[in-house]
Amino acid sequence: MGIKRKLFVTVLLAIAAMPLSAQSTVAHEIVKGNTIYSLAKEYGSTVEAINEANPNIGVRSLVIGETLMIPIPKDTLVNQDVDSQVPNQSNTQAPEYEVYLVKRKDTPESLTASWGLPDVEAFFTLNPDARIQWSKGMALVKPANAAAMAFKTPTNSKETNDTTASLGNDIHVACILPFFLDQYVNEGPGRKRSELSFSYRQGVELAIEEFTKDSSLVIDVQFFDSMNQRDTVQGIVQGLITNQPDLVLGPMYSSRLMQLKGTPLEELAVNLISKQESVRNTGLWNDVVSEDVFWSAIKSFHDLPQQQDTANDSTVVLPRKLLVVGINSGKSAKASRYLINDLEAEEYLLIEGDNSWIHNEQLAALDSTIGYDLVITENDPAYILDVLRNLRSVNLDYHWYTHEYQALDNGLVSSVFARETVHMFNANFTDYDREESTEFIREFRNRFERHPDRMAIEGYDNAKFHLLRLTQGTTSWRGVRKGFSFENASRENSFVEMRSFKNLRWELQQ
Q: Which of 289, 243, 245, 220 is nearest to 461 (CA)?
């Protein structure tokens, strides 16, 4: 079931489509650069007449290769040199349509056959809403004569957006979220995730409202429930291919995101929250900063010449060494090798072992005359605490360099960081010192009468950035919570900032 913010009523277009008096029609195959306005001007017709003769285009953009019926006055001369113009005889029928109400046993496939349409795609071209909702009594557009069926079904081409080079003043956004509507109503297990999706939707709604407030843009957003039995992702994808949007936010889960791979929607879609490696090997816009980016930032920071703190002249400055601790297999081993690559043996100390963690006991015997820059490459919170327990058992000078997936997403509480000097590399952090954050919270509470949660902020940031990218060419932007950096035509977010834990809070380091 599709959840719409803006309703297009195709039935009204069908009712309005009456045979045109004192007119003949020309079949025109759409080519790049065509718009309804340019066709009306070229043929001496009107936008209203073309829309009436082709009710199937009332809810979407033109599609290259599609055939439109162009009504023209009988006394209008048609330029015979234009290949795409095929004038009909003066007695050619104008397309006629009628309203059909869905019956209990009707299906798109059965109506396609009974109406004599060439295939089910032709049915959905006339009735795009039928892809996302289907119920007894639903009004459909039905061809009433042969001329009404004489159009081509749009092909699934990546060049299917409206044929003008720019977006114009209308932007169409599709947002695919797991609302779990059936389970939500029945208090099922999907309820909690459904509530998170509705929070995300509220963030998207607010971003669009703010974006259009001071501009001439018209942004239409349509929401889909990817967990509803009717709204299978495959069905949603097929519907969106016909009515191709400018931006697709979601789906959320990697298995459903991968269903967009290889479709015309792949390069329009955004990965919102999935950290799965498979998502990175696609044409999707990947808003999630990968762990590899954080390791790269930590390595680059460590390789920089470090300025010593001279505020206290009595402080003894110790020589420092990179201390890498982890498991000798899997992603931990890969990260450890990356961090020590290109370093001389005397510049680092690598302590790693198997899943027994017995190797961590070596930390209690480290040389206390050396300062250590600690990096833990295993993300298991219990492992991290075991490393810190061993280090705390002796008097050592060490700084811990971590990232948000360890420090913020692992369930570690703030008291863990109070006993060390901790520096965190992150891409997501709601900083209440920023004016943008307090302004967003104020607007959100006024609009929805509640405090925004994490998902609401994510929805706001993701929608706002990608609208900026589409309309202004923005490649880098810091939202309320999330940062974005898509430099050098990359589709991988590489935004990173550094924060240090001071005064029981994470403070941004310039």
A: 289
